[in-house]
Amino acid sequence: MSTPNSYERVELEGLSTSFFLNNRQRFIKNLKEHIVSLPENSYLFLMGGKDLYRYDNDDELFYFIQESNFYYLTGVLEANYYATINLTDASVSLYIPQPTEREKIFLHWETLEQIAEKYKCQTFDLVKLPQEINRLNPKKIYVLNGTNSDSGNKVLTCDYVFPAPYDKLNDIVDHDELIYEILADTRTRKSQEEIDLLKYINQVTVEGHVEAMKKIAKNYKNKIIERDVENYFFGYTRRKLYSRNHPYEHICGCGVDGATLHYINNDQELKDGQLILMDMGALAGGYVSDVTSTVPVNGKFTEKQKQIYDIVLDANKQVQNNAKPGVSWTEMHLLAEKVILTGLQNLGLLQKDYSVDDMVKDRVAYYFMPHGLGHLMGIDVHDAGGYLSFTPERNKEKGLDCLRTARYLEPNMVLSDEPGIYFIPYLLEKGFNDEKVSKYFVQDKIKEYYDFGGVRIEDDILITDDGCVNLTEGLPRTTEEIEKTMSSN
Amino acid sequence: MSTPNSYERVELEGLSTSFFLNNRQRFIKNLKEHIVSLPENSYLFLMGGKDLYRYDNDDELFYFIQESNFYYLTGVLEANYYATINLTDASVSLYIPQPTEREKIFLHWETLEQIAEKYKCQTFDLVKLPQEINRLNPKKIYVLNGTNSDSGNKVLTCDYVFPAPYDKLNDIVDHDELIYEILADTRTRKSQEEIDLLKYINQVTVEGHVEAMKKIAKNYKNKIIERDVENYFFGYTRRKLYSRNHPYEHICGCGVDGATLHYINNDQELKDGQLILMDMGALAGGYVSDVTSTVPVNGKFTEKQKQIYDIVLDANKQVQNNAKPGVSWTEMHLLAEKVILTGLQNLGLLQKDYSVDDMVKDRVAYYFMPHGLGHLMGIDVHDAGGYLSFTPERNKEKGLDCLRTARYLEPNMVLSDEPGIYFIPYLLEKGFNDEKVSKYFVQDKIKEYYDFGGVRIEDDILITDDGCVNLTEGLPRTTEEIEKTMSSN
User: Fold this and answer.
1) Cα(A297)–Cα(A299) distance, rounded to whole angstroms?
2) The complex's ipTM?
3) CA of B370 to nearest chain A CA: how many angstroms apart?
4) Do B56 and A156 touch (CB under 8 A)?
5) Most B CBs within 10 Å: which of A51, A105, A114, A183, as the mutation test of the B interface?
6) Which of B108, B154, B249 lies nearest to residue A63, judging by beta carbons?
């Protein structure tokens, strides 16, 4: 797979307007497939993200990130806009607050004409929004309404209230949750342009991970901190992508820290003989990667580390060998569980008297991997569309309830494939004391791993017509490849 | 001035508990000076910052930053806490939400005992808050209430409502705005520990600016972007301080971008012959620096650039020569204006027929420096306490209305000293068309500077007993020093 280069300056120049026109057209097509009675002259009315400040003061909280649905459909990078999308021809109108005299002096601002040219759309002063929408004489004004299935948080709804004399427009505002669901569903299947962008981000992420691996091996004797490792990666991707924001809080956990799934302190010193788990992704053009490597601090796996690592790598690869359209993601999770259980049984950490199928049925793998196999990806790290009213619902069984989607795979979906084995004493003790599963564990053997930490191997995969491809290709993954990379300074 | 080293690992290890005890004691002392009738057994009840998520999804918005007042008084770095401060003995109790079973597996969490030890205070499960506060039998429960004078935003108030059977506690909650004002006032005068920390952050900031200057000179021929310059600095300070957040959005503006006061795009290519204005500060231990350098992209000032630069540097230095306790900050602003107006008149940009005093009276400097001379600094870049009910009120005159404080200087205040000259065509044309001031401008001469951009020179200064010291000492400031630094790769 070659590295696409057309996105190298995307953080400086933005994506093309056709990228987002394509998103809108695919959304409208999907909408028409679900809603046969979509009225003519109907519009989607969107509110973009607003500037946020740090508590009471006047410092902006962080470099502005656009709300994901607004971004997906418009590509607009600025805060405080509203938009309507014509659901017949996919055209966009933007309603833009105009700068005050003071802002004209202080800020880099563009005229409505410049913004219209930049986004290839109509632009209006925000104060003219009600009369402009009224002029369209819409039959229906849809707004997004729904709940993110990962967070349980409500989707950002356009809460604009039309004032008199345009207040009759409020009567045709439609909050049907299906509209949001169809948008979320559209987001799960990527366009070729989205795929190319994700490939590019993944390739830079691979380079950043390699940079981190090499610098760890070079510097670990100098009392470096997990935070340094975070900086090796972020320094690299920030230089290469020009991006300022993280896609998520990076996890760099050495030794036992690797067993804290959402470990973000990253304040401990790396020690010779430890593994370090690095969950570090990049962001560009509003899309993200999510990649984890686990490597030995000193560049050389111990036999014990290699044994656990190879089980996780096997799970990661078997998922990639089996993921294809029509396969259930739950089935892939269970496949990874089986590989992990088999491996741990062979290593003597699980009793040999029981079958792996029994252990799967009794949800034993949960005690070593208390998270889902992976998740949809795109604009959000945990991307929208995991659970919708027209897709399989969340499984209630232990561990399976962590899965961020139970969907059947479709071409052009992008997901993370991230099995792991962690030794979390708190969780394992719960297993030892649970009468349903305690019989499966070889407790003394497992306790030998209490200071081990964890191993996770996370690639981003693209579902194709007949299988999947690994967007994270090129990252050293076998223990031999990692050792070679870390000794090649 | 030597570089203090005791704060090198502050982002990893936190500040000492005595740092914050000192803050509390000084606050209580100030409180007692203002409020003679402070009831015995009274408490300040505080709500800390809460976790924020990126719109509807489950990604945290950014690395958590504690609310400034909560941080100042408690030093607590974690989200979602409440606190009471005993206004007699300055002791703290923390009320802490306890992790769910899932969080115990996913997060790095500490027991109430561990947190009590870490912060040297009492700790309680948040669910026990009402009975614990009831047990204290308080006479008065103060909460913060007020408005930030920079942003106009309300201060984060503790909005906790005591449930039955403890609801009579709601009757003794006191929202007196004076309490917040006294806290903000206390924050304006730094302790020795705060000063040492600010010195350290400033010294690393100086190193980061020098790094940026050298790298610009080394790389400007390779089509580098303003964003690269931002990365030179942030890469350095992130490595050195281990800090993840910016104190504010960095400004790197080359050429005309230097005249956009809050220019944050930083997406243009540096060009030979331009100046670049770099407003880049650092953050560590919850405190910040705010420093601006303006340097020639190619390492060598033109005569035209040097002339403007030297005026600004003169203004910056004259402020430092005159700032001392008892002097009004407004007076310092006017001093900087006079230096700038005199310089521009000597250069032939302002008519020689008028006196500088006339120009000051008619607010002419505003058209070249439409911002205040500087602001209080500390935890917030624009720190609290600029305007309070017991300090001088905001001046209404053009330009002076931008000042973030009009206070009389006091020992241990820390402020930025940041005069500038900018050529903002939009603003200058307003001046040319304003009948009150148009007579002062030599329009043709000024128009020769429309592509010049701007120069700002910003140091952080500490008011001492009889003057001030420059915390940003060591940064190359004269044109000779800058040229020498940029040629010394």
Assistant:
1) 6
2) 0.95
3) 8
4) yes
5) A105
6) B249
**Cα(A458)–Cα(B385) distance, integer angstroms:** 49
Chain A residues whose CB is inside 8 A of the B63 CB are 249, 264
CA distances from B450 to A256, B147, B425, B428 (A): 59, 38, 6, 9
- Mean pLDDT in residue range B233-256: 95
Question: For residues B352 and B361, what is the distance between their CA atoms, to the nearest angstrom?
Answer: 16
Handedness of CA B184, B190, B191, B196 (dihedral sign): positive
What is the C-alpha separation between A442 and A429, in angstroms, rounded? Answer: 12
Q: Residue A398 to residues A338, A360, A394, B188: CA-CA distances in angstroms?
A: 15, 10, 11, 54
Least confident of A446-450, B100-104, B332-336, B375-379: B100-104
| Identity at B465, one-letter amino acid code | D
Average pLDDT, chain A: 96
pLDDT of residue A2 exceeding 50:
no
Cβ separation B426–A105 shorter than 8 A:
yes
Contact A58/B148 with Cβ under 8 angstroms?
Answer: yes
Please give the pLDDT value at position A301. Answer: 98
SS3 B316: helix
Q: Which residue has the tokens 């956990």?
A: A253
As a whole number of angstroms, the distance between CA A478 and CA A482 comes to 6
User: Given CB atoms, is A399 within the 8 Å cutoff of chain B?
Assistant: no
Q: How far is B156 from chain A (nearest CA, A)?
A: 7
Helix, strand or coil, per DSSP, at residue B441: strand
The answer, yes or no, to whether residue A316 has pLDDT greater than 90, is yes
Nearest-neighbour CA in chain A from B315: distance (Å): 21
Indicate which of A46, A54, A234 best probes the interface with B, i.e. most B CBs within 10 Å of its own CB: A54
When the pLDDT of each residue in chain B is averaged and rounded to a whole number, the result is: 96
Q: Which of B96, B104, B162 is nearest to B124 (CA)?
A: B96
* Least confident span in A321-335, A367-381, B3-17: B3-17
Q: Model confidence over A69-95: pLDDT tens digits?
A: 999 999 999 999 999 999 999 999 999
CATH code of B189-486, in short, is: 3.90.230.10
Q: Which of A199, A396, A420, A204 is nearest to A319 (CA)?
A: A420
A366-405 pLDDT, tens digit each: 999 999 999 999 999 999 999 999 999 999 999 999 999 9
Contacts of B55 in chain A (CB under 8 A): 49, 67-68, 153, 155-156
Distance in angstroms (rounded) separating the CA atoms of residues B331 and B406? 9
d(CA A416, CA A402): 14
C-alpha–C-alpha distance, residues A173 and A141, integer Å: 5
SS3 B43: strand
- Answer yes or no: is pLDDT of A58 > 90: no
- Which residue type is seen at A140? K
Q: Options 3.40.50.10330, 3.30.70.20, 3.40.30.10, 3.40.350.10; which CATH number does B10-187 get?
A: 3.40.350.10
Q: What share of chain B is helix, strand, coil (3-state, %, to 5)?
A: 40, 15, 45
- pLDDT beyond 90 at A4: no
Chain B contact for A159 (CB, 8 A cutoff)? no
Q: Where are the domains of chain A?
A: 10-187, 189-486
Q: What are phi and psi of B230, to 5 degrees?
A: -55, -40
The Cβ-side half-sphere exposure at A159, using a 13 Å CA radius, reads 7
Q: Which two tokens stand for residue B22?
A: 């000192």
Residue for token pair 């191997």:
A457
According to DSSP, residue A285 is labeled T
Distance CA B42, CA B51 (A): 29
Size of interface A-B (CB pairs under 8 A): 170
pTM for the model stands at 0.96
